[in-house]
Amino acid sequence: MPEQQTITLTVNGRVHTKDVATRTSLADFLRDQLHLTGTHLGCEHGVCGACTVTVDGRSARACLMLAVQADGREVVTIEGLKDPAGVWHPVQKAFFENFAIQCGFCTPGFFATAIELLGQNPDPTEAEIREYLSGNICRCSGYQAIVEAVRAAAAAMQDHQRG
Amino acid sequence: MKAPVFDYRAPRSLAEATAILRDAGPDGRVLAGGQSLMPMMNMRIVAPGVLVDINRIEELARLDADGGTLRVGALVRHVDILHSPLVKAGWPLMSEATAYVAHPAIRNRGTTCGSVAHNDPAAEHPSVLLTLGGSVVIASAEGRREVKAEDFLQGLMTTALEPGEMIVELRYPPVRPGTGWAFVEFSRRLGDFALGGAAALLTLRGGVCEEARLTLVGMGEGPVRVTAAEALLAGQRIDEGTAPELFEAAVQLARRAVDPTDDVHAGAGYRRHLAGVMARRALARALLRSGRTHHA
Ligand SMILES: Cc1cc2nc3c(=O)[nH]c(=O)nc-3n(C[C@H](O)[C@H](O)[C@H](O)COP(=O)(O)OP(=O)(O)OC[C@H]3O[C@@H](n4cnc5c(N)ncnc54)[C@H](O)[C@@H]3O)c2cc1C
Ligand code: FES
Ligand code: FES
What is the pLDDT of residues B80-132, one digit of tens each? Predict the structure, then answer.
Protein backbone atom coordinates (compact mmCIF):
# COMPACT_ATOMS: atom_id res chain seq x y z
CA MET A 1 0.00 0.00 0.00
CA PRO A 2 2.32 2.74 -1.15
CA GLU A 3 -0.14 5.60 -0.60
CA GLN A 4 -1.30 4.47 2.85
CA GLN A 5 0.76 2.89 5.63
CA THR A 6 0.53 1.78 9.23
CA ILE A 7 3.09 3.38 11.52
CA THR A 8 4.03 2.88 15.14
CA LEU A 9 5.78 5.69 16.94
CA THR A 10 6.22 7.11 20.41
CA VAL A 11 4.89 10.59 21.01
CA ASN A 12 5.51 12.20 24.39
CA GLY A 13 6.18 8.80 25.89
CA ARG A 14 3.02 7.13 24.53
CA VAL A 15 3.11 4.52 21.78
CA HIS A 16 0.66 5.04 18.92
CA THR A 17 -0.15 2.77 15.98
CA LYS A 18 -2.04 4.55 13.19
CA ASP A 19 -2.85 4.36 9.51
CA VAL A 20 -1.56 7.38 7.63
CA ALA A 21 -1.60 8.62 4.08
CA THR A 22 2.05 8.63 3.02
CA ARG A 23 1.87 12.27 1.92
CA THR A 24 0.76 13.42 5.38
CA SER A 25 3.39 15.55 7.10
CA LEU A 26 4.42 14.76 10.65
CA ALA A 27 2.90 18.11 11.66
CA ASP A 28 -0.51 17.32 10.17
CA PHE A 29 -0.38 13.84 11.67
CA LEU A 30 0.31 15.22 15.15
CA ARG A 31 -2.41 17.84 14.83
CA ASP A 32 -5.16 15.98 12.99
CA GLN A 33 -4.71 12.35 13.99
CA LEU A 34 -3.30 12.68 17.50
CA HIS A 35 -5.05 16.00 18.21
CA LEU A 36 -1.83 17.50 19.54
CA THR A 37 -2.50 20.98 18.25
CA GLY A 38 0.38 22.59 20.13
CA THR A 39 2.57 22.01 17.06
CA HIS A 40 1.82 25.06 14.95
CA LEU A 41 2.06 25.48 11.19
CA GLY A 42 3.12 28.85 9.85
CA CYS A 43 4.71 28.46 6.47
CA GLU A 44 4.90 24.74 5.66
CA HIS A 45 8.23 25.17 3.94
CA GLY A 46 10.72 25.16 6.75
CA VAL A 47 11.24 28.89 7.14
CA CYS A 48 9.28 30.01 10.21
CA GLY A 49 10.20 27.32 12.73
CA ALA A 50 6.77 27.21 14.42
CA CYS A 51 6.38 23.48 13.74
CA THR A 52 9.76 22.48 15.23
CA VAL A 53 9.52 19.32 17.36
CA THR A 54 12.08 16.83 18.68
CA VAL A 55 12.63 13.56 16.83
CA ASP A 56 14.99 11.03 18.42
CA GLY A 57 16.51 13.81 20.48
CA ARG A 58 17.13 16.27 17.64
CA SER A 59 15.05 19.25 16.61
CA ALA A 60 13.25 18.84 13.29
CA ARG A 61 10.74 20.74 11.20
CA ALA A 62 7.51 18.72 11.46
CA CYS A 63 6.27 20.32 8.23
CA LEU A 64 9.24 18.90 6.29
CA MET A 65 9.01 15.35 7.59
CA LEU A 66 6.46 12.81 6.50
CA ALA A 67 4.57 11.00 9.23
CA VAL A 68 5.73 7.69 7.71
CA GLN A 69 9.32 8.80 8.28
CA ALA A 70 8.58 8.93 12.01
CA ASP A 71 7.75 5.21 12.06
CA GLY A 72 9.72 3.67 14.92
CA ARG A 73 10.94 7.05 16.14
CA GLU A 74 10.44 8.99 19.33
CA VAL A 75 8.78 12.38 19.00
CA VAL A 76 8.42 15.05 21.67
CA THR A 77 6.03 17.96 21.18
CA ILE A 78 5.21 20.90 23.41
CA GLU A 79 2.53 18.76 25.06
CA GLY A 80 5.28 16.47 26.34
CA LEU A 81 7.51 19.03 28.01
CA LYS A 82 5.98 18.93 31.49
CA ASP A 83 7.42 16.32 33.81
CA PRO A 84 5.20 13.43 34.97
CA ALA A 85 4.21 15.42 38.07
CA GLY A 86 2.88 18.17 35.81
CA VAL A 87 5.70 20.61 36.53
CA TRP A 88 6.69 22.84 33.65
CA HIS A 89 10.04 22.41 31.94
CA PRO A 90 12.50 25.15 33.06
CA VAL A 91 12.37 26.62 29.55
CA GLN A 92 8.58 26.89 29.73
CA LYS A 93 8.79 28.51 33.15
CA ALA A 94 11.46 30.97 32.03
CA PHE A 95 9.46 32.02 28.95
CA PHE A 96 6.42 32.61 31.13
CA GLU A 97 8.34 34.58 33.75
CA ASN A 98 10.26 36.68 31.22
CA PHE A 99 7.20 37.68 29.16
CA ALA A 100 8.69 35.86 26.18
CA ILE A 101 5.26 34.77 24.97
CA GLN A 102 2.74 37.11 23.39
CA CYS A 103 0.37 35.36 20.98
CA GLY A 104 2.22 32.09 21.52
CA PHE A 105 2.16 30.98 17.91
CA CYS A 106 5.93 30.67 17.60
CA THR A 107 6.45 29.40 21.16
CA PRO A 108 6.38 25.61 20.64
CA GLY A 109 9.14 25.86 18.04
CA PHE A 110 11.25 28.12 20.25
CA PHE A 111 10.93 25.60 23.09
CA ALA A 112 12.16 22.69 20.99
CA THR A 113 15.08 24.73 19.68
CA ALA A 114 16.04 26.26 23.03
CA ILE A 115 15.91 22.88 24.78
CA GLU A 116 18.22 21.40 22.16
CA LEU A 117 20.64 24.32 22.57
CA LEU A 118 20.77 23.99 26.36
CA GLY A 119 21.33 20.25 26.03
CA GLN A 120 24.46 20.92 23.97
CA ASN A 121 25.61 24.11 25.61
CA PRO A 122 24.35 24.60 29.18
CA ASP A 123 25.71 28.13 29.48
CA PRO A 124 25.36 29.88 26.10
CA THR A 125 26.29 33.50 25.49
CA GLU A 126 23.71 35.91 24.16
CA ALA A 127 25.31 35.66 20.70
CA GLU A 128 25.15 31.87 20.80
CA ILE A 129 21.47 31.99 21.78
CA ARG A 130 20.66 34.39 18.96
CA GLU A 131 22.54 32.22 16.49
CA TYR A 132 20.85 29.02 17.58
CA LEU A 133 17.38 30.57 17.51
CA SER A 134 17.96 32.25 14.13
CA GLY A 135 15.66 29.77 12.38
CA ASN A 136 12.65 30.60 14.55
CA ILE A 137 10.58 33.63 13.69
CA CYS A 138 8.47 35.55 16.20
CA ARG A 139 6.19 38.29 14.88
CA CYS A 140 5.26 39.72 18.29
CA SER A 141 7.88 39.68 20.97
CA GLY A 142 10.87 41.42 19.44
CA TYR A 143 13.17 38.55 20.51
CA GLN A 144 14.79 40.35 23.45
CA ALA A 145 12.50 38.71 25.98
CA ILE A 146 13.03 35.33 24.32
CA VAL A 147 16.81 35.64 24.58
CA GLU A 148 16.47 36.68 28.23
CA ALA A 149 14.19 33.72 28.88
CA VAL A 150 16.72 31.28 27.45
CA ARG A 151 19.45 32.79 29.63
CA ALA A 152 17.20 32.52 32.66
CA ALA A 153 16.38 28.91 31.80
CA ALA A 154 20.09 28.13 31.46
CA ALA A 155 20.77 29.61 34.91
CA ALA A 156 17.83 27.75 36.46
CA MET A 157 18.89 24.45 34.93
CA GLN A 158 22.46 24.90 36.14
CA ASP A 159 21.28 25.75 39.66
CA HIS A 160 19.11 22.70 39.60
CA GLN A 161 22.04 20.51 38.57
CA ARG A 162 24.22 21.89 41.33
CA GLY A 163 21.36 20.95 43.69
CA MET B 1 -0.01 23.90 1.09
CA LYS B 2 0.25 20.12 1.16
CA ALA B 3 2.25 17.69 -0.94
CA PRO B 4 0.46 15.88 -3.77
CA VAL B 5 -0.05 12.10 -3.70
CA PHE B 6 2.97 9.90 -4.46
CA ASP B 7 4.05 6.30 -4.21
CA TYR B 8 6.28 6.13 -1.11
CA ARG B 9 9.11 3.61 -0.88
CA ALA B 10 11.63 3.22 1.92
CA PRO B 11 14.26 0.71 0.80
CA ARG B 12 16.75 -0.73 3.31
CA SER B 13 19.64 -1.24 0.92
CA LEU B 14 21.31 0.62 -1.90
CA ALA B 15 20.59 -2.23 -4.31
CA GLU B 16 16.90 -2.03 -3.50
CA ALA B 17 16.91 1.76 -3.91
CA THR B 18 18.56 1.70 -7.33
CA ALA B 19 16.16 -1.04 -8.49
CA ILE B 20 13.18 1.13 -7.53
CA LEU B 21 14.77 4.15 -9.23
CA ARG B 22 15.41 2.13 -12.40
CA ASP B 23 11.78 1.02 -12.55
CA ALA B 24 10.46 4.51 -11.79
CA GLY B 25 12.59 6.24 -14.45
CA PRO B 26 12.03 10.00 -14.72
CA ASP B 27 9.11 9.74 -12.29
CA GLY B 28 11.35 8.70 -9.39
CA ARG B 29 12.94 11.04 -6.89
CA VAL B 30 15.26 10.51 -3.97
CA LEU B 31 14.13 11.85 -0.60
CA ALA B 32 17.14 12.53 1.62
CA GLY B 33 16.84 15.20 4.33
CA GLY B 34 13.73 16.59 2.68
CA GLN B 35 14.79 20.13 3.58
CA SER B 36 14.61 21.29 -0.03
CA LEU B 37 12.39 18.62 -1.58
CA MET B 38 9.55 18.78 0.95
CA PRO B 39 9.14 22.57 0.60
CA MET B 40 9.04 22.14 -3.20
CA MET B 41 6.45 19.38 -2.85
CA ASN B 42 4.39 21.33 -0.33
CA MET B 43 4.39 24.29 -2.72
CA ARG B 44 3.65 21.87 -5.58
CA ILE B 45 6.64 23.03 -7.57
CA VAL B 46 7.47 19.34 -8.01
CA ALA B 47 5.23 16.29 -7.87
CA PRO B 48 7.26 13.09 -8.05
CA GLY B 49 5.35 9.90 -8.84
CA VAL B 50 7.64 7.67 -6.80
CA LEU B 51 9.41 8.97 -3.73
CA VAL B 52 12.42 6.89 -2.75
CA ASP B 53 13.21 7.63 0.89
CA ILE B 54 16.86 6.70 1.51
CA ASN B 55 16.83 7.49 5.24
CA ARG B 56 16.72 3.83 6.28
CA ILE B 57 19.77 2.77 4.25
CA GLU B 58 22.38 2.65 6.98
CA GLU B 59 25.33 2.04 4.66
CA LEU B 60 24.85 5.59 3.32
CA ALA B 61 25.60 7.28 6.67
CA ARG B 62 29.34 6.78 6.35
CA LEU B 63 31.68 9.71 6.98
CA ASP B 64 35.32 8.66 6.85
CA ALA B 65 38.69 9.09 5.16
CA ASP B 66 39.97 6.51 2.74
CA GLY B 67 43.66 6.89 1.87
CA GLY B 68 43.50 10.61 2.59
CA THR B 69 40.28 11.14 0.62
CA LEU B 70 37.24 12.26 2.60
CA ARG B 71 34.08 10.28 1.83
CA VAL B 72 30.72 11.77 2.68
CA GLY B 73 27.83 9.31 2.31
CA ALA B 74 24.35 10.29 1.15
CA LEU B 75 22.95 10.22 4.68
CA VAL B 76 25.59 12.38 6.29
CA ARG B 77 23.74 15.40 7.64
CA HIS B 78 24.96 19.00 7.77
CA VAL B 79 25.19 18.66 11.56
CA ASP B 80 27.49 15.63 11.25
CA ILE B 81 29.89 17.64 9.07
CA LEU B 82 29.75 20.60 11.43
CA HIS B 83 30.75 18.48 14.44
CA SER B 84 33.23 16.15 12.72
CA PRO B 85 36.82 16.44 14.05
CA LEU B 86 37.98 14.57 10.93
CA VAL B 87 36.50 17.21 8.62
CA LYS B 88 37.73 20.08 10.76
CA ALA B 89 41.29 18.73 10.77
CA GLY B 90 41.61 17.88 7.10
CA TRP B 91 39.00 19.93 5.23
CA PRO B 92 38.39 22.98 7.43
CA LEU B 93 36.94 24.91 4.48
CA MET B 94 34.02 22.53 4.59
CA SER B 95 33.46 22.94 8.34
CA GLU B 96 33.59 26.71 7.98
CA ALA B 97 31.08 26.69 5.10
CA THR B 98 28.67 24.34 6.85
CA ALA B 99 28.20 26.79 9.70
CA TYR B 100 26.46 29.04 7.15
CA VAL B 101 24.03 26.34 5.99
CA ALA B 102 20.51 27.02 7.26
CA HIS B 103 19.49 26.68 10.92
CA PRO B 104 19.95 23.92 13.52
CA ALA B 105 16.71 22.00 12.88
CA ILE B 106 17.39 22.03 9.14
CA ARG B 107 21.03 21.02 9.61
CA ASN B 108 19.86 18.08 11.73
CA ARG B 109 18.16 16.53 8.70
CA GLY B 110 19.54 18.09 5.52
CA THR B 111 22.38 16.21 3.84
CA THR B 112 25.52 17.39 2.09
CA CYS B 113 24.84 15.10 -0.86
CA GLY B 114 21.29 16.46 -1.06
CA SER B 115 22.68 20.01 -1.25
CA VAL B 116 24.97 19.03 -4.10
CA ALA B 117 22.14 17.18 -5.91
CA HIS B 118 19.85 20.18 -5.48
CA ASN B 119 22.57 22.60 -6.67
CA ASP B 120 20.94 25.82 -5.57
CA PRO B 121 23.15 28.70 -6.80
CA ALA B 122 23.23 30.20 -3.30
CA ALA B 123 24.10 26.93 -1.54
CA GLU B 124 27.45 26.47 0.16
CA HIS B 125 28.24 22.81 -0.53
CA PRO B 126 28.38 22.80 -4.33
CA SER B 127 30.96 25.61 -4.19
CA VAL B 128 33.00 23.81 -1.53
CA LEU B 129 33.05 20.60 -3.56
CA LEU B 130 34.19 22.57 -6.61
CA THR B 131 36.84 24.51 -4.71
CA LEU B 132 38.30 21.41 -3.10
CA GLY B 133 38.40 19.57 -6.45
CA GLY B 134 36.00 16.89 -5.24
CA SER B 135 33.89 14.39 -7.10
CA VAL B 136 30.49 12.72 -6.93
CA VAL B 137 30.00 8.95 -6.83
CA ILE B 138 26.78 8.03 -8.59
CA ALA B 139 25.03 4.66 -8.46
CA SER B 140 22.32 3.12 -10.59
CA ALA B 141 21.06 -0.42 -11.09
CA GLU B 142 23.68 -0.69 -13.85
CA GLY B 143 26.67 0.20 -11.68
CA ARG B 144 28.67 3.16 -10.47
CA ARG B 145 30.42 6.13 -11.99
CA GLU B 146 32.46 8.96 -10.51
CA VAL B 147 32.03 12.47 -11.89
CA LYS B 148 34.23 15.48 -11.12
CA ALA B 149 32.51 18.42 -9.44
CA GLU B 150 32.95 20.71 -12.46
CA ASP B 151 31.24 18.16 -14.71
CA PHE B 152 28.54 17.28 -12.19
CA LEU B 153 27.38 20.86 -11.52
CA GLN B 154 25.82 21.90 -14.80
CA GLY B 155 23.98 25.13 -14.06
CA LEU B 156 20.88 26.38 -12.33
CA MET B 157 19.69 23.46 -10.17
CA THR B 158 20.95 21.15 -12.89
CA THR B 159 23.42 18.29 -12.49
CA ALA B 160 24.79 15.28 -14.37
CA LEU B 161 22.34 12.95 -12.59
CA GLU B 162 20.26 10.90 -15.03
CA PRO B 163 16.91 9.24 -14.29
CA GLY B 164 17.50 6.04 -12.32
CA GLU B 165 20.66 7.41 -10.70
CA MET B 166 21.46 8.62 -7.22
CA ILE B 167 24.45 10.01 -5.36
CA VAL B 168 26.04 7.55 -2.96
CA GLU B 169 28.90 9.69 -1.75
CA LEU B 170 30.98 12.79 -2.26
CA ARG B 171 34.77 12.57 -2.32
CA TYR B 172 37.17 15.30 -1.31
CA PRO B 173 40.87 14.83 -2.03
CA PRO B 174 43.40 15.73 0.66
CA VAL B 175 44.22 19.41 1.06
CA ARG B 176 47.93 20.12 0.61
CA PRO B 177 49.93 21.12 3.67
CA GLY B 178 50.46 24.85 3.92
CA THR B 179 47.09 25.67 2.38
CA GLY B 180 45.17 28.57 3.89
CA TRP B 181 41.41 28.43 3.56
CA ALA B 182 38.38 30.66 4.03
CA PHE B 183 34.67 30.58 3.41
CA VAL B 184 32.87 33.88 3.83
CA GLU B 185 29.28 34.76 3.18
CA PHE B 186 26.83 37.60 3.46
CA SER B 187 23.12 37.17 4.15
CA ARG B 188 20.45 39.32 5.74
CA ARG B 189 19.85 36.89 8.57
CA LEU B 190 22.25 34.22 9.75
CA GLY B 191 21.38 30.87 8.18
CA ASP B 192 19.49 32.33 5.24
CA PHE B 193 20.65 31.53 1.75
CA ALA B 194 23.61 33.69 0.77
CA LEU B 195 23.20 36.98 -1.05
CA GLY B 196 26.81 36.31 -1.93
CA GLY B 197 29.81 34.44 -0.68
CA ALA B 198 33.26 33.21 -1.57
CA ALA B 199 35.53 30.25 -0.92
CA ALA B 200 39.30 30.58 -1.19
CA LEU B 201 42.31 28.33 -0.87
CA LEU B 202 45.91 29.59 -0.98
CA THR B 203 48.76 27.09 -0.95
CA LEU B 204 51.96 28.87 -0.03
CA ARG B 205 55.48 27.52 0.10
CA GLY B 206 58.27 29.81 1.23
CA GLY B 207 55.92 32.77 0.78
CA VAL B 208 55.24 31.92 -2.85
CA CYS B 209 51.75 30.90 -3.97
CA GLU B 210 51.87 27.45 -5.53
CA GLU B 211 48.17 27.24 -6.11
CA ALA B 212 45.12 29.45 -5.59
CA ARG B 213 41.44 28.64 -5.72
CA LEU B 214 38.67 31.20 -5.67
CA THR B 215 34.96 30.41 -6.06
CA LEU B 216 31.99 32.73 -5.79
CA VAL B 217 28.60 31.71 -4.41
CA GLY B 218 25.14 33.09 -5.15
CA MET B 219 26.20 35.10 -8.19
CA GLY B 220 24.55 33.33 -11.09
CA GLU B 221 23.45 29.89 -12.15
CA GLY B 222 25.82 28.08 -9.81
CA PRO B 223 29.20 28.40 -8.15
CA VAL B 224 31.67 30.36 -10.28
CA ARG B 225 35.36 29.59 -10.16
CA VAL B 226 37.40 32.69 -10.89
CA THR B 227 40.12 30.94 -12.86
CA ALA B 228 41.60 34.23 -14.08
CA ALA B 229 42.28 35.29 -10.50
CA GLU B 230 43.66 31.86 -9.66
CA ALA B 231 46.10 32.12 -12.56
CA LEU B 232 47.06 35.64 -11.56
CA LEU B 233 47.91 34.62 -7.98
CA ALA B 234 49.77 31.39 -8.78
CA GLY B 235 53.54 31.85 -8.75
CA GLN B 236 53.40 35.21 -6.97
CA ARG B 237 55.07 36.03 -3.70
CA ILE B 238 52.16 36.93 -1.43
CA ASP B 239 52.93 38.79 1.77
CA GLU B 240 51.71 41.86 3.60
CA GLY B 241 53.44 44.09 1.08
CA THR B 242 52.22 42.51 -2.13
CA ALA B 243 48.80 41.26 -1.00
CA PRO B 244 46.80 44.51 -1.30
CA GLU B 245 47.67 45.01 -4.96
CA LEU B 246 47.36 41.34 -5.91
CA PHE B 247 44.06 40.93 -4.14
CA GLU B 248 42.71 44.12 -5.70
CA ALA B 249 43.46 42.67 -9.12
CA ALA B 250 41.76 39.43 -8.10
CA VAL B 251 38.73 41.40 -6.90
CA GLN B 252 38.41 43.09 -10.29
CA LEU B 253 38.60 39.70 -12.01
CA ALA B 254 36.00 38.29 -9.60
CA ARG B 255 33.58 41.09 -10.44
CA ARG B 256 34.13 40.45 -14.14
CA ALA B 257 33.65 36.69 -13.76
CA VAL B 258 30.07 36.91 -12.54
CA ASP B 259 26.83 37.77 -14.26
CA PRO B 260 24.30 38.23 -11.47
CA THR B 261 20.67 39.08 -12.08
CA ASP B 262 18.20 41.25 -10.15
CA ASP B 263 15.87 39.47 -7.80
CA VAL B 264 13.75 40.38 -4.79
CA HIS B 265 16.72 39.99 -2.46
CA ALA B 266 19.27 42.19 -4.22
CA GLY B 267 20.02 43.97 -7.48
CA ALA B 268 22.61 42.78 -9.99
CA GLY B 269 24.87 45.79 -9.34
CA TYR B 270 24.82 45.18 -5.61
CA ARG B 271 25.65 41.52 -6.12
CA ARG B 272 28.55 42.29 -8.44
CA HIS B 273 29.96 44.68 -5.84
CA LEU B 274 29.45 41.99 -3.18
CA ALA B 275 31.35 39.47 -5.30
CA GLY B 276 34.45 41.63 -4.97
CA VAL B 277 33.99 42.25 -1.25
CA MET B 278 33.56 38.54 -0.59
CA ALA B 279 36.57 37.63 -2.76
CA ARG B 280 38.80 40.10 -0.94
CA ARG B 281 37.72 38.89 2.51
CA ALA B 282 38.14 35.23 1.59
CA LEU B 283 41.62 35.75 0.13
CA ALA B 284 42.76 37.85 3.08
CA ARG B 285 41.57 35.28 5.59
CA ALA B 286 43.06 32.40 3.61
CA LEU B 287 46.42 34.20 3.53
CA LEU B 288 46.40 34.60 7.33
CA ARG B 289 45.84 30.87 7.68
CA SER B 290 48.32 29.72 5.06
CA GLY B 291 51.63 28.17 6.00
CA ARG B 292 49.97 26.47 8.92
CA THR B 293 50.04 22.73 8.31
CA HIS B 294 47.03 20.51 8.76
CA HIS B 295 46.67 16.86 7.90
CA ALA B 296 43.86 14.60 6.84
C1 LIG C 1 14.62 27.56 5.86
C2 LIG C 1 15.69 26.88 5.09
C3 LIG C 1 16.92 27.49 4.94
C4 LIG C 1 17.92 26.87 4.21
N5 LIG C 1 19.11 27.51 4.09
C6 LIG C 1 20.09 26.92 3.38
C7 LIG C 1 21.35 27.56 3.21
O8 LIG C 1 21.60 28.64 3.75
N9 LIG C 1 22.27 26.94 2.45
C10 LIG C 1 22.03 25.73 1.86
O11 LIG C 1 22.91 25.21 1.18
N12 LIG C 1 20.88 25.10 2.02
C13 LIG C 1 19.90 25.66 2.76
N14 LIG C 1 18.72 25.00 2.89
C15 LIG C 1 18.54 23.70 2.20
C16 LIG C 1 19.16 22.57 2.98
O17 LIG C 1 20.56 22.72 3.06
C18 LIG C 1 18.89 21.21 2.36
O19 LIG C 1 19.22 20.29 3.35
C20 LIG C 1 19.66 20.85 1.12
O21 LIG C 1 19.55 21.81 0.12
C22 LIG C 1 19.12 19.55 0.49
O23 LIG C 1 19.50 18.46 1.23
P24 LIG C 1 18.40 17.41 1.69
O25 LIG C 1 19.17 16.24 2.19
O26 LIG C 1 17.46 18.03 2.59
O27 LIG C 1 17.75 16.99 0.29
P28 LIG C 1 16.25 16.76 -0.14
O29 LIG C 1 15.43 17.92 0.21
O30 LIG C 1 15.81 15.43 0.34
O31 LIG C 1 16.46 16.68 -1.71
C32 LIG C 1 16.78 17.83 -2.49
C33 LIG C 1 16.95 17.41 -3.95
O34 LIG C 1 18.11 16.62 -4.10
C35 LIG C 1 17.79 15.31 -4.53
N36 LIG C 1 18.61 14.37 -3.78
C37 LIG C 1 18.86 14.37 -2.44
N38 LIG C 1 19.73 13.41 -2.11
C39 LIG C 1 20.05 12.77 -3.26
C40 LIG C 1 20.91 11.68 -3.58
N41 LIG C 1 21.63 11.05 -2.64
N42 LIG C 1 20.99 11.29 -4.86
C43 LIG C 1 20.28 11.92 -5.83
N44 LIG C 1 19.46 12.96 -5.60
C45 LIG C 1 19.35 13.39 -4.33
C46 LIG C 1 16.31 15.14 -4.26
O47 LIG C 1 15.73 14.23 -5.14
C48 LIG C 1 15.81 16.55 -4.47
O49 LIG C 1 15.66 16.82 -5.84
C50 LIG C 1 17.70 25.59 3.62
C51 LIG C 1 16.47 24.96 3.79
C52 LIG C 1 15.46 25.59 4.50
C53 LIG C 1 14.15 24.90 4.66
S1 FES D 1 5.51 25.54 9.43
FE2 FES D 1 7.29 24.33 9.49
S3 FES D 1 8.82 25.82 9.46
FE4 FES D 1 7.06 27.03 9.16
S1 FES E 1 4.65 35.37 20.37
FE2 FES E 1 3.47 35.78 18.63
S3 FES E 1 4.71 35.06 17.05
FE4 FES E 1 6.00 34.87 18.73
Answer: 999 999 999 999 999 999 999 999 999 999 999 999 999 999 999 999 999 99
Instruction: Say what percent of chain A tops pLDDT 70.
Output: 98
Contact A70, A9 (CB under 8 A): yes
Task: With CB atoms and an 8 Å threshold, state whether A58 touches B108.
Answer: yes
What are the CA-CA distances from residue B231 to residues A158, A159, B159, B211, B253 (Å)? Answer: 55, 58, 27, 8, 11
Q: Which of B118, B153, B156 to mutate to test the pocket of ligand 1 (most atoms within 8 A of CB)?
A: B118
Range of the domain at A40: 4-79
Query: Rounded CA gap, A43 and A38, in Å?
Result: 15
Q: Which of A79, A109, A126 is the endpoint of a domain?
A: A79
Q: Could you tell which of A39, A63, A66, A137 is best to mutate to test the pocket of ligand 2, judged by most ligand atoms within 8 Å of the CB? A: A63
At B11, which CATH number?
Answer: 3.30.43.10
Question: For chain A, which residues score pLDDT lower than 50?
Answer: 1
Task: Identify whether residues B200 and B277 lie together within a single domain.
Answer: yes
**3-state class percentages of chain A: helix first, strand second, coil last, to nearest 5:** 40, 20, 40
Assign B47 a pLDDT band (cuts: 50, 70, 90).
Answer: very high
* pLDDT on residue B293: 43
C-alpha distances (whole Å) from A9 to each of A24, A113, B15 are: 15, 21, 27
pTM of the model: 0.96
Which one of B8, B104, B189 has the shortest CB-CB distance to A22?
B8
How many A from CA of B101 to the centre of ligand 2? 17
Minimal Cβ distance to B4: which of A5, A23, A130: A23
Bridge-based pairing of strands B28-31 and B50-53 is parallel
Residue A44, class by beta-carbon neighbours within 10 Å (0-12 exposed, 13-18 middle, 19+ buried)?
Answer: buried
**Closest alpha carbon within chain A to B4:** A23
Is residue A113 in some structural domain? yes
For residue B83, give the chain A residue with the closest CA.
A120
Nearest to B105 among A28, A61, A66 (CB): A61
Q: Where is the domain boundary, A48, A79, A110?
A: A79
